[in-house]
Write a structure and sequence with these properties.
Largest sheet: 7 strands, mixed
Distance between the termini: 37 Å
CATH topology of the domain at 227-421: Isoleucyl-tRNA Synthetase, domain 2
CATH superfamily of the domain at 227-421: Valyl/Leucyl/Isoleucyl-tRNA synthetase, editing domain
Bound molecules: ligand ANZ
CATH architecture of the domain at 227-421: Alpha-Beta Complex
Shape: globular
Radius of gyration: 32 Å
Strand content: 15-25%
């Protein structure tokens, strides 16, 4: 029997699989399809990390099982290679981004192959390939045609370090998500996509996704932030003064509290607009505005916590419900980007207004009282602000009605309109940087912004000498006169090209469609192929993409649906999220801490199969888990045991299945199948471990049983299983075998096998009668020699028995 050495096994099979195109997707197959996708990587200079391999191994296991179950599986990968990081890497290392992207993707691909991932590389795509981004540009032009992509001059987030405009999704609180710099608001020309037109559908269609984790759906709902409310107009009194409008409109989610309004408040930005059109504000007011605007980004993100400050304008408004005269204030907690930038303040029923009113001694008028009549009544009546429901009082003809009913009635009474507001902003879609898709429009002095004709796509990114940001708010492309100066497709006169580029989220918003039909020169995706493959059946990725990439991609998909390119309303039927791989001890892995684990090193020392088993066994797939070299060694030992079993003399050809194995055999097939389907890889592996323990005890193992065991293990450890399978005399790959079936009648037996864990590690297994009492099981377990040797005479701290499954001993 030879020693187990993955170096003799793994590269050999990887080459064989590549040479025989074992994982190639079938074209025109009449098998049912299964599209298994993981978020394609951004090929950074650092290479693959263990977080990548955790995701990719999981989707690989799933794809491998599905292939064996008879599905035509699409399991591709590629490169999300445009964007700031690639460009910054290039600037730092003084190479053209296309060169470093090329180098990095090659390294990634080699690494991915060393892990034994079963991608169909015939379908590899790269977002920076003109053949790919032609279709990113094409989709943009379709949006432009329909008025969804437009030029805007609103102030946007500007990162002074990255020297580019950013979307809200690119921020981490008030800071640039990439470099951590506090962003500024900068008015500048930019391209924007009207994603807010899709806000309702992006929320409502989440209901059609039962296989998405509820937490992900909730995060999306919050990000889109839909509020139902009313727009209500207040007449202003000093309308003869310059710059002051006749009426002020507010957005409120609580029109029922209109009789309780004691002041109005406007944002500093709105006040500044009034001054710009002629309002003669006092020096004190101007100072307040300047100060508040300086705190802009802090206010935008911490509106709830910001220290409330304000100044009275001297202007008054009339409450349309009761004709009361109320003052208009400027307040720092009123934001310009939400609603109308003006609020009606109801201190009795809103925390922020309450705090403000107390500070500036403004009246507080209660108009909602709780309806319950219990002991709490007195205290809750006196406790303001009261933000709950109840009945109206001090509200003239509406007194005594439930406040919810008052929302509509009071809005109608004052001639307001019911409406919705969203936290989601339109998508700021231009970057003042080099390494992105050129935006395919020209600026013509006569015809304005004109789309370039479709047959001129792709509009390729020209070579530049200097791709460093200019810092002027212009992209480096602006410096290439020969590229910039062109003719207008409409009038033929001189025109200039748009020099901003698209954000790094553009290509990833639709790339999953291209894998279905990667080489099609005539369409983004062919109709038949889309019909067959869509939607993606399982999409695996990280939590950081829940409110960015996943919202952008869902939006892009819905747009393509509207123009007839795709046939499904949603791109991803099922979403599974991975937990982080932390450094040993539970801290984040980072270069700075020097605790980054490189999968190449692990493969060199332990082999890819052990890495795969370890990363899947480390804990529940969605949980953040610290790296543990001890447990990695445990995974390697398990792989070695399988090797010993398979290359020893126990496996026999012609014997029947001993009854001692039969039940566990069927149970194992069921458990592993169900667990892979549910992404419970850790428990699937522990079942396989239990089975190996059992096999180990047999003098003779029927070949068919051992073969089926190898098939169940094959998705997890594709190399060793292929080797042992071949050693059994098989001439075709185990990865094209049929997945084992279980007999449900044989699963229920009087006896079951449970695992015994000691300090979290599986040390023994035990057969028990299904009907055994829990205490009996614990007692029996502690008397087993295989357990006692670990106890070393000590009494365990805790013995936990999870009925029928596992007994866990804590020392
Ligand atoms: C009066 C009122 C009474 C309000 C009450 C709340 C409670 P969401 O749920 O986030 O949509 N608001 C409106 N525009 C604002 C802005 N630009 N900056 C800061 N606050 C703004 O919140 C909507 C509520 O937030 C609105 O309803 C308004 O205050 C405030 F008992 O109007 B409310």
């Amino acid at each position: 029997m030879s020693e187990y050495d993955p170096k003799n096994i793994e590269p050999k099979w990887q080459k064989e699989w590549a040479d025989t195109k074992l994982y190639q997707t079938e074209e025109g197959s009449d098998k049912p399809k299964c599209y298994v996708l993981d978020e394609f990587p951004y090929p950074s200079g650092e290479g693959l990390h263990t977080g990548h391999t955790r995701i990719y191994t999981a989707s690989d296991i799933y794809a491998r099982m599905k292939r064996m179950q008879g599905y035509n599986v699409l399991h591709p990968s590629g490169w999300d290679a445009f964007g700031l990081p690639a460009e910054q890497f290039a600037i730092k290392h003084k190479v053209h981004p296309s060169e470093s992207v090329q180098k990095n993707t090659e390294r990634y691909k080699t690494q991915m192959n060393r892990v034994g991932l079963s991608y169909d590389w015939e379908r590899e795509i790269n977002t920076t390939d003109p053949k790919f981004y032609k279709w990113t540009q094409w989709a943009f032009l379709k949006m432009f045609e329909r008025g969804l992509a437009f030029e805007s001059f609103e102030p946007i987030n500007w990162c002074p370090t990255c020297q580019t405009g950013l979307a809200n999704e690119d921020l981490d609180g008030a800071n640039c998500e990439r470099c951590g710099t506090l962003v500024e608001k900068k008015p500048m020309r930019q391209w924007v996509i009207r994603i807010t037109d899709y806000a309702d559908r992006l929320i409502d269609d989440l209901e059609t996704l039962p296989d998405w984790p509820e937490a992900v759906k909730e995060a999306q709902r919050n990000w889109i932030g839909r509020s139902q409310g009313s727009l209500i107009s207040f007449a202003l009194t000093q309308t003869d003064a310059d710059g002051i409008p006749q009426t002020l409109e507010v957005f409120t989610t609580r029109p029922d509290t209109l009789f309780g309004v004691t002041y109005l408040a406007i944002s500093a930005e709105l006040a500044k607009n009034w001054i710009e059109v002629g309002w003669q504000a006092s020096e004190e007011i101007k100072m307040f505005i300047t100060q508040t605007l300086q705190e802009e980004s802090k206010r935008t993100f911490d509106a709830e916590v910001v220290d409330k400050k304000g100044v009275a304008t001297g202007i008054f408004a009339v409450n349309p419900a009761n004709q009361e005269k109320i003052p208009v204030w400027i307040a720092n907690y009123v934001l310009s980007g939400y609603g109308t930038g003006a609020i009606m303040a109801v201190p009795a029923h809103d925390e922020r207004d309450f705090e403000f009113a107390q500070k500036y001694k403004l009246p507080i008028k209660q108009v909602v009282v709780p309806t319950f009549h219990n002991n709490n009544e007195a205290t809750s009546l006196n406790h303001l602000p009261y933000i709950g429901d109840g009945v109206l009082k001090n509200s003239a003809g509406f007194d005594g009605i439930p406040n919810e009913e008052g929302e509509k009635r009071i809005t109608e009474f004052v001639g307001g309109t019911m409406t919705k507001q969203y936290r989601l902003n339109d998508w700021v879609f231009s970057r003042q940087r080099y390494w992105g898709e050129p935006i395919p429009v020209v600026h013509c002095p006569k015809d304005g912004v004109v789309a370039i004709p479709e047959n001129e796509l792709p509009l390729t990114l020209p070579e530049v000498d200097s791709y460093e940001p200019t810092g002027t708010g212009e992209s480096p492309l602006a410096a290439i006169a020969s590229w910039v100066n062109t003719t207008c497709p409409k009038c033929g006169g001189p025109a200039t090209r748009e020099t901003n580029t698209m954000p790094q989220w553009a290509g990833s918003s639709w790339y999953y469609l291209r894998f279905m039909d990667p080489h099609n020169p005539d369409a983004l995706v062919g109709k038949d192929k889309e019909k067959y493959w869509a939607p993606v059946d399982v999409y695996v990725g990280g939590a950081e993409h829940v409110t960015r990439h996943l919202i952008y991609a869902r939006f892009w998909h819905k747009f393509l649906y509207d123009i007839g390119v795709v046939s499904t309303l949603e791109p991803f039927a099922r979403r599974r999220g991975v937990g982080l791989v932390l450094g040993e001890g539970g801290v984040k892995m980072s270069k700075r801490l020097g605790n980054v684990i490189n999968p190449d090193d692990i493969i060199d020392t332990f082999g890819a199969d052990s890495l795969r088993i370890y990363e899947m066994f480390m804990g529940p797939f969605g949980a953040a888990i610290p790296w543990s070299t001890d447990n990695l060694i445990g995974a390697r030992r398990f792989v070695e045991r399988v090797w010993k079993l398979g290359s020893g003399s126990a496996v026999h050809l012609d014997i029947g299945c001993p009854s001692s194995l039969e039940t566990l055999y069927h149970q194992t097939i069921k458990k592993v199948t169900d667990d892979i389907e549910e992404f419970k890889f850790n428990t699937a592996i522990s079942q396989l471990m239990i089975f190996v323990n059992m096999l180990d005890k047999e003098e003779k193992i029927p070949q068919q049983i051992f073969g089926d065991f190898l098939k169940l293990l094959a998705p997890f450890a594709p190399h060793i299983t292929e080797e042992l399978w071949a050693n059994m005399g098989n001439r075709t790959s185990i990865h094209r075998e049929v997945w084992p079936h279980y007999d449900s009648e044989k699963i229920l037996s009087d006896t079951i096998t449970i695992g015994i864990q000691i300090n979290g590690k599986l040390r023994d297994t035990m057969e028990i009668n299904r009907a055994s009492e829990n205490e009996e099981v614990k007692e029996a377990a502690l008397k087993r020699p295989g357990v006692m040797k670990w106890l070393e005479g000590k009494t365990p701290k805790k013995v936990i028995y999870i009925e029928g499954k596992i007994l866990s001993i804590v020392l």
